[in-house]
């Protein structure tokens, strides 16, 4: 055995010993609220399909039509021959929806963050990043070679103390998730705008879990708070509430021009396939019109949080459709998830390194398509498992 082989296998064993080994299992999609796993139907609390749009016939048909008209693949980067008219249509609809001058599509949220951050800052600059930001933000910062200053989660005072210490002449980027993906809490966005203005920093906000969900027409949290013009880069995805795939950034026209010229994950990659663009276009239109989906999601989320809290679970600081049950031990969390699955509920065990050591949890993500009876039934099962495992008394 080569030395490297021995070392890498040891690493895997180490992950297994810590009860952190991840596995892929296969599922089949059932429309709306359920998945099939090993032939069993599970109520799906583990997707980001918050508004149930991934199974919507109008999105599916729009994908099919776009593929028929433009082909299965986009054949090149958009700067080569991949820039179908569909792209421009989606981008102008997107800018209109978000209330910004311009928009640009990326292949995924991950590649958008990695590419945008490494284009905005370089080795002489500083990135101020919430400690719980998404992995793609961290990876983008590493790739940029900028100095990374992680501030305590949501702590504006800590952020300001770091900003104060930074040399005046250095370019500064403040970056945050709007809704944090493992805790379901909301960033202090207005405070971040104030600090950005006070210290002359760039502000970038990742609306992956709030786009489509907040605001009269689902524009997102920034729009709801009326600060969308003050945030330099609004980024979000089509892969969650919008039920499709891909991501976007919106901002001033010159910023978007800058991205077209500088973001390597935009320049050196094949454009999204026409089918994805077709469903994105349909989703942007539907999400703005069908307010009822947002309302239903808010109702379901509120009800679920309230009941879990009353039953006696620790749901952390959640105030959104992402609701964790804090457990702590990796082993117990995995067992909790397994027991839920036996009862017909898919809810993922989230363990380090995705979350800090000692804070393993079950993460529920709500959908607008759940009926109240389904939630009540779920709450009963969760309470029973919680008691059985001693998580609640
Ligand atoms: C999911 C997510 C991403 C990545 O988006 P993909 O389209 O899945 O690559 C980026 N940022 C945050 C906060 C996310 O939750």
From TrEMBL:
TM annotation in the entry: 266-287
Biological role: Catalyzes the decarboxylative condensation of pimeloyl-[acyl-carrier protein] and L-alanine to produce 8-amino-7-oxononanoate (AON), [acyl-carrier protein], and carbon dioxide.
N6-(pyridoxal phosphate)lysine: residues carrying this PTM: 240
A single BP term in Gene Ontology: biotin biosynthetic process
Catalysed conversion reaction: 6-carboxyhexanoyl-[ACP] + L-alanine + H(+) = (8S)-8-amino-7-oxononanoate + holo-[ACP] + CO2
Superkingdom per UniProt: Bacteria
Keywords linked to the UniProt accession: Biotin biosynthesis, Membrane, Pyridoxal phosphate, Transferase, Transmembrane, Transmembrane helix
SUPFAM superfamilies: PLP-dependent transferases
Any matching Pfam family: Aminotran_1_2
Enzyme Commission number: 2.3.1.47
Family: Belongs to the class-II pyridoxal-phosphate-dependent aminotransferase family. BioF subfamily.
Name of this chain's protein: 8-amino-7-ketopelargonate synthase
Organism annotation: Bacillus smithii 7_3_47FAA
Cofactor(s) this protein cannot do without: pyridoxal 5'-phosphate
Domain Aminotransferase class I/classII large: start-end pairs: 42-376
């Amino acid at each position: 055995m080569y030395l490297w082989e021995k070392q890498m296998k040891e690493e895997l064993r180490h992950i297994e010993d810590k009860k952190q080994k991840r596995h892929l299992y296969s599922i089949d999609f059932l429309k709306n609220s359920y998945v099939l796993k090993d032939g069993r139907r599970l109520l799906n609390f583990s997707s980001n399909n918050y508004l149930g749009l991934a199974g919507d016939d109008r999105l599916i048909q729009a994908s099919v039509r776009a593929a028929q008209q433009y082909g299965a693949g986009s054949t090149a980067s958009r700067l080569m021959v991949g820039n179908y008219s569909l792209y421009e249509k989606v981008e102008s609809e997107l800018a209109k929806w978000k209330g910004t001058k311009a928009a640009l599509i990326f292949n995924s949220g991950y590649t958008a963050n990695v590419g945008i951050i490494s284009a905005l800052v370089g080795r002489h600059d500083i990135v101020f990043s919430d400690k719980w930001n998404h992995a793609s933000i961290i990876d983008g910062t590493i790739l940029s070679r900028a100095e990374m200053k992680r501030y305590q989660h949501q702590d504006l005072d800590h952020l300001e103390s770091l900003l104060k210490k930074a040399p005046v002449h250095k370019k500064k980027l403040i970056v945050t998730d709007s809704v944090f993906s493992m805790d379901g809490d909301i960033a202090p966005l207005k405070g971040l705008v104030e600090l950005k203005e006070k210290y002359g920093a760039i502000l970038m906000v990742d609306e992956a879990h709030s786009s489509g969900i907040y605001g009269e027409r689902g524009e997102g949290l920034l729009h709801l708070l009326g600060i969308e013009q003050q945030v330099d880069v609004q980024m979000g995805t089509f892969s969650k509430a919008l039920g499709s795939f891909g991501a976007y950034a919106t901002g001033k026209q010159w910023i978007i021009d800058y991205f077209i010229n500088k973001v390597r994950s935009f320049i050196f990659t094949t454009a999204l396939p026409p089918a994805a663009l077709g469903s994105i276009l349909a989703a942007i239109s539907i999400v703005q019109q069908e307010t009822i989906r947002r309302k239903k999601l808010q109702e379901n989320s509120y009800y679920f949080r309230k009941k879990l809290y009353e039953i006696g679970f620790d749901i952390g600081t959640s105030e959104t459709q992402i609701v964790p049950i804090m457990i702590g031990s990796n082993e117990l969390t995995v067992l909790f998830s397994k027991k839920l699955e036996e009862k017909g509920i898919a809810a993922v065990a989230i363990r380090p390194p995705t979350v800090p050591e000692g804070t393993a949890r079950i993460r529920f993500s709500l959908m607008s398509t759940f009926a109240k009876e389904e939630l009540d039934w779920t709450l009963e099962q969760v309470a029973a498992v919680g008691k059985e495992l001693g998580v609640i008394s």
